Amino acid sequence: MENWSLISLCVLLGLTSRWAVSFHSYSGAGKPPMFGDYEAQRHWQELTYNLPVHEWYFNTTNNDLNYWGLDYPPLTAYHSLACAYIAKLFNPEWVELHASRGYESHSHKLFMRATVLFADALIYIPAVLLYCFYFCDGSPKQKVATAFCILMYPGLMLIDYGHFQYNGVSLGLALWGVLGLGLGWDLFGSVAFVLALNYKQMELYHALPFFCYLLGKCVKHGLNGQG
Question: Would you list the DSSP string of 5-54?
Answer without folding.
Answer: HHHHHHHHHHHHHHHHHHTS--TTTT-TTT-HHHHHHHHHHHHHHHS-GG
